[in-house]
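Is adenosine-5'-diphosphate placement plausible here? Inputs below.
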Amino acid sequence: MEYVVTTDQLTKTFGSFTAVNQLSIAIRPGEIYGFLGPNGSGKSTTIRMLCGILEPTAGSGRVVGFDLATEAEKIKPHIGYMSQKFSLYDDLTVCENLEFYAGLYSVPWRERKVRILEMVEMAGLAGREKELVANLSVGFKQRLALGCAIISKPAILFLDEPTSGISPTSRKMFFNIIQRLANEGTTVMVTTHFMDEAERCSSIAFISEGSLIANDTPDNLRNKVIEGVLAELEIEDPMGKLQEIERLTYVKECSVHGSLLHVLLEQEQHLQELQAVTRGRANRITPSLEDVFIALSRKKRRAETGE
Ligand SMILES: Nc1ncnc2c1ncn2[C@@H]1O[C@H](COP(=O)(O)OP(=O)(O)O)[C@@H](O)[C@H]1O
Ligand SMILES: [Mg+2]
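Reply from A.M.:
I modeled the complex. Tokens:
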């Protein structure tokens, strides 16, 4: 199978509101496909359609070879799904939760014991199998929820903001597991607000108001979206000088990043001019995905307002 997921003009409307607008994407086996966009842009709605939970209004799609509109029930046994509100049973033990999901996903009896053991190991819960889930910290709960979602070795795993509300250390551990799964051949589609996680994706789709506005590898996005030379500018009172800098003829964009400004210049030679004019220190930097998203959002706004 060349693609695990394909959609063609996939659309979902709620009454007169269009939540997902003619979305066409393709996901290859073993990819970590980052699905990014502001709150309310249609990420969860898309994932629900791909999981066969929500019927598309228009357009079409295939997941693991089955049609979304006519074969949704055939898709379900091949996918794993985990949302922000991971559904564990607090009053069951670690093992009982895994046994429950092994049953739900019809993991063959002879494989269950081994599979549960593997998931306990993966979650770092060896020795705590009999502990109630209620007593686990959020990071452990999240890794256990992941174990429940992949206990049946699904071909594709959908993760909808799986790392919201957990510590940076746990987030990193979680993404290491995701990367290992992908290396072993599991396809992963993940939504996240964290740019360090987006950087670890093999492909990124960025949606805004239900429409796809960019789709490429992180490196290609950096090279294609940012047209110009990006500089990090260290000056006094960056907020106060923002407008003045934006008015310079060779400045294409200017945005605040903590105590620094990121200034997009037309050419390399403008670095020195910028330093001279602002009496600050300007260094050329490699654009982060955050810079890419700021640029994309601006481009979209400009296209809409016709500026
Ligand atoms: N069942 C529903 N009925 C009506 N509107 C919905 C429903 N589900 C989602 N929406 C709306 O669709 C838009 C996209 O929602 P969602 O897919 O949850 O966005 P995201 O996951 O990107 O934050 C939002 O404006 C949301 O309010
Ligand atoms: Mg969502």
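Short version: The chain has two domains: 5-216, 222-305.
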